[in-house]
From TrEMBL:
Name this polypeptide is given: UDP-glucose 6-dehydrogenase
Residues that hold NAD(+) according to the record: 30, 35, 86, 121, 158, 269, 334
Catalyzed reaction equations: UDP-alpha-D-glucose + 2 NAD(+) + H2O = UDP-alpha-D-glucuronate + 2 NADH + 3 H(+)
Keyword set includes Oxidoreductase: yes
GO biological process terms on file: polysaccharide biosynthetic process; UDP-glucuronate biosynthetic process
UniProt pathway: Nucleotide-sugar biosynthesis; UDP-alpha-D-glucuronate biosynthesis; UDP-alpha-D-glucuronate from UDP-alpha-D-glucose: step 1/1
Binding site for substrate: 155-158, 210, 255-259, 263, 327
Keywords assigned by UniProt, alphabetized: NAD, Oxidoreductase
Keyword NAD tagged: yes
Amino acid sequence: MKVTVFGIGYVGLVQAAVLAEVGHDVLCVDVDEHKVENLKNGNIPIYEPGLTPLVKQNYESGRLQFTTDAKAGVSHGIMQFIAVGTPPDEDGSADLKYVTAVARTIAQYMDDHKVVLDKSTVPVGTADKVRAVMQETLQARGSKLTFDVVSNPEFLKEGAAVADCMRPERIVVGTDNDDVVELLRELYEPFNRNHDRMILMDIRSAELTKYAANCMLATKISFMNEISNLAELLGADIEKVRQGIGSDPRIGYHFIYPGCGYGGSCFPKDVQALIRTAEHIGYQPKLLQAVEDVNYQQKDKLPQFIKRHFGENLAGKTFALWGLSFKPNTDDMREASSRVLMETLWQAGAQVQAFDPEAMDETQRIYGHRADLKLMGTKEAALQGADALVICTEWQNFRAPDFDTIKSALKQPVIFDGRNLYDPERLATRGITYYAIGRGASLATYK
Ligand code: UDX
């Protein structure tokens, strides 16, 4: 089937590559000439496990192509995916200018029936806006061409995007026209082999499903972070509590890991956007606001521990930082807890020596060259001469470090761990002062 994907970001590129991999004929369109040229030369703009070979193979086979020519994109596919960004505007609402621009482009150049699929995370009611923009554009052309608008949200996780897209848990399809269902079944047939993963519903329910999923997961995390703060004050260990509640299948083990706050391109933005949507229709969402507030507070947890230990003025202190990306297996720094940490440390006069397996280029791009930030080649190099170690991201190779090396490299044997990677008792016996999240039973955090 011929498919066009507008927007070569995380969602668009992964979806396009996976659709090409199963045999569809996919053309990706982006306004960024540089990005398109790079992709044609096999340079993938993001770090995502498994994506580079998938893109290269499918590009070489001709099933996956890239262009900046929007007109060619519109004439290529019966299926027209909109996978452009929906960044937050000043008040946190999702900004739809890129989505509506693509809708206008499709209507401007189409010369037969098109099925327009919204892949971007968009507020409830966006499909109606897309439809209105397209109708207006077609009318201005004096055209009577028809089209369908479908809500088809994406649920992939960064770091596991290819696998999530190849083996989706569900394919949510919101449509008001039964006639397009057969086309969508054909498109997604390769992903429905073992059992039908398509969940059909009306458009608005599909749009809300995406926000509800992300907000539910963010709620679980903020809930655990709140309980971890209680555990710290009450002298309990959140890791024991986590296991204790996770064993109840109604609660489950997923997404109940406490930490130094959630980040990324989705949770912070989507929680805020749903709050704004609710407010626009006169509903004050108390729970969602609390989820957001707890997360904001949680990102300040490590800086608080550091100031509790070293005092408010950190001038002359150097901190080794392990982990910059908002989570492992990505170079994405959007809303990363490490950013709040570094910015607070710098403000208090401290220096940072950071290491991350993938996100150092991105960190350099964001912060440029500055005297109080050194990006080090290895996690061991980051430790040298630092006053303490801080951990913001749970990359696998941070899980079992050589604690003797850490002790001898640091001026003081102190670890501030935002991801609860280590056993507090084991560290205590090695003479390391250990601050972690919600581990009130350990000495460092419960005094
Ligand atoms: C998320 C959703 O999981 C995905 O379904 C959706 O399509 C996009 O948003 P992503 O942002 O890639 O995916 O990352 P995810 O793995 O969900 O982690 C988000 C944040 O939550 C990270 O900062 C992570 O560290 C944090 N997190 C996650 C916790 O603090 N505790 C947990 O138990 C799980």
